[in-house]
Amino acid sequence: MKFWKILFLNILIMGTMISISSISWLSMWMGLEINLMAFIPLLINFKSIYSAESALKYFISQTLGSLILLFSMILNMIIFEYMIFSKSMILLINSALLLKMGAAPFHFWFPEIIEGLNWINILILLTWQKIAPMILLMYNLKLINFISTIIISSIIISTISSFNQISIRKILVFSSINHIGWMLSAMIFNQSIWLIYLMIYSLMTFLMIFMFYKMNCYFFNHLFLIFSKNKIIQILFFLNFFSLGGLPPFIGFFPKWITSNELMNNNFFIIFILIFFNLIMLYIYIRLMHNSILLKNYSIKNNFYSNNILLLISNLFFILLTPLIVSYF
């Protein structure tokens, strides 16, 4: 990796750490801006004209969120002369943070930029870039009805948008928005559960993106052709998508299981929406797998033999880990 990429990656991590460890909202805002300024150069790939467009769209959307956040802080200080926020200011701050993390209906920028990014940047965007906005939202989680509306919107919109997608990157984006709804649900009632959820989701996303990165594969039609050449990759794909959909006994089932247990005692309506649309999302994943099984008579050059065993062992490890965790709890 080039030196300048390592430098900006360290600055990006530092910006997140500043945000989540600050005690003043101004310092939190500064940390978010440092994170943004470090991530923009990482998004730009001089070999692709689409990366510059994606970087510009990401910059505009994140700047809009930062402006709303800064405006609400300044306006609150002018009106009330102290940093105890009114409900209207909390609404603005929460909206800005939800915009930054890409929760529906503030997700308009998310699918637009993803097609111009490589797999490394997608991994950072889907995992690390969610940490700071979510923790700041956790600090200011007071408008439960508003957050509940965001949860339902994220679940429904992401599920409907996932139908008939041929882009792997867009499927992962809408899956990410879906998981944001689950994480916000966990955050409302038990703030330790959402951290477990984020960690497991990040691990699942890493495994999937690492597989697609090694194959240099961005669309399902390309992926299905590779399946006909290498059945181990097909098995890995099935395992990862079953886990991402939360099907037991895969590791992705565990965070949804503990979140559902918590919500059963607090909000039955939200858990009904979550489970119902999660079943629809599982149907979408299974339909993709069914289409891949039907394609058997094609061939394509495959450059992904050396990492098959490593990925298979890592996936099986996380599958076997789930029953152990469940039995512990």
TrEMBL record:
Membrane spanning residue stretches: 7-28, 34-52, 64-85, 117-137, 143-164, 195-213, 233-255, 267-288, 309-328
GO cellular component: mitochondrial inner membrane
Principal cellular location given in the protein's record: mitochondrion
A Pfam family hit: Proton_antipo_M
EC number: 7.1.1.2
Enzyme class, spelled out: translocase
Location(s), subcellular: Mitochondrion inner membrane
Family to which this protein belongs: Belongs to the complex I subunit 2 family.
Biological role stated in the UniProt entry: Core subunit of the mitochondrial membrane respiratory chain NADH dehydrogenase (Complex I) which catalyzes electron transfer from NADH through the respiratory chain, using ubiquinone as an electron acceptor. Essential for the catalytic activity and assembly of complex I. Core subunit of the mitochondrial membrane respiratory chain NADH dehydrogenase (Complex I) that is believed to belong to the minimal assembly required for catalysis. Complex I functions in the transfer of electrons from NADH to the respiratory chain. The immediate electron acceptor for the enzyme is believed to be ubiquinone.
Name of the protein this chain belongs to: NADH-ubiquinone oxidoreductase chain 2
Gene it is expressed from: nad2
